[in-house]
Amino acid sequence: MNDVMYMLGCAYMNGVGTEQNGELALKYFKKASADPLLGNAFKAKEGIARCMEKGIGCEADPDGAMKMRDEMKRIAKETNTRDLVWPVVDAYASDVFFELGPDAKARKGWIDWYVSVRPYMRGIGSLCDYYSVIPQNRDWRKASEYADEHAKYWGDSMWSQHRTGVYNVFGIGRDKDVEKGIALLEKSAEKFNPYAIEMLAYIYGSGAGVEKDAAKEAEWLEKLSELAYPPYSHIAARYIRASDSVEDPEHAKFVLKLGADAGDEKAKNNLENFGAFVNRCLDGKSAI
User: 2 near 34, Cβ under 8 Å?
Assistant: First the structure.
């Protein structure tokens, strides 16, 4: 039942399916948060804290919001239920509009706390993404440090291999080592990581640190097309945002056309409305 109360709170806070009503949002968040260890109750507590912080349905009380978050962290730590925190992180993700987000700063605040309590693959990876994917937050030095920390614990994961592979190929936070970077990207691609597969196609197609090789480019593009659901729009967005240090709008169009030709309606729509797609990519908030 508290899951329903939480979603009603989100609906009234964001005006999704109904008019915005801060007082009702706060009311339903409070109902949903009665048992902090049940269902979406922890996210509902964060909903209350957000209302207090922003003055939604009540007078703004940033200090009260901070105290509530401190209490949430105490509960999570003392009951060894820190995994309750990660759904709060997800509720602020850049492509989440129905819950609490998008809010990169609030998301990062919870990630920082989580990682300080215990190293966590997704947490450290998310901090790397925070400083690399969205231009407004970009800090390549910090992104590189988190990529290396991620690799220290989970170097065999496809995400670590993809990040450190890209950083080696393009010399992000380190000297260029194209051979090492390609080897890491190939390991990631072997695990069916679409971003690594497409990046290898881009490297050979553009001659990024290697001689152009149309045959290898075609080979990697074929592997991309063989995946069940290649994320063409998300890949294209990386070339608009320069998320891998490569800004190439024409290649973004190329990737969207690949998707459109493969029957991906989202890619087709983004290609047909490319200007709007670019604006969404660069505003730091909108879903792709």
Answer: yes
Residue ranges and CATH numbers for the domains of the chain are 1-96 (1.25.40.10), 229-288 (no CATH)
How confident is the model at residue 116, as a pLDDT? 83
Convert the pLDDT of each residue in 62-92 to its tens digit.
Answer: 999 999 999 999 888 887 766 778 888 888 8
Q: pLDDT by residue (tens digit) across 227-241? A: 999 999 999 999 999
Half-sphere exposure of 158 (CA within 13 A, CB side): 11
In angstroms, the Cα distances linking 68 to 6, 62, 112, 249 are 17, 10, 17, 44
Q: Tens of pLDDT along 118-162?
A: 777 778 888 899 899 989 889 999 999 999 989 988 899 999 999
Query: Where is average pLDDT lowest: 18-27, 36-45, 197-206?
Result: 36-45
pTM flag (> 0.90): no
Return the structure tokens found at 68.
């509530």
Residue 179's nearest CA partner among 149, 158, 220, 209 is 209
Burial of 277 (0-12, 13-18, 19+ CB in 10 A): buried
d(CA 66, CA 281): 31
Tokens (6 digits) for 267? 């890619």
| SS3 at position 198 | helix
Evaluate whether 30 touches 23 at the Cβ level (below 8 Å).
no
The whole-angstrom separation of Cα 48 and Cα 78 is: 21
Rounded to whole angstroms, the Cα distance separating 148 from 257 reads 34
| CA 57/CA 239 separation, integer angstroms | 40
Q: How far is CA 107 from the centre of its chain?
A: 10
Three-point CA angle 188, 194, 198, nearest 5°: 95
Tell me which amino acid residue 115 is.
V
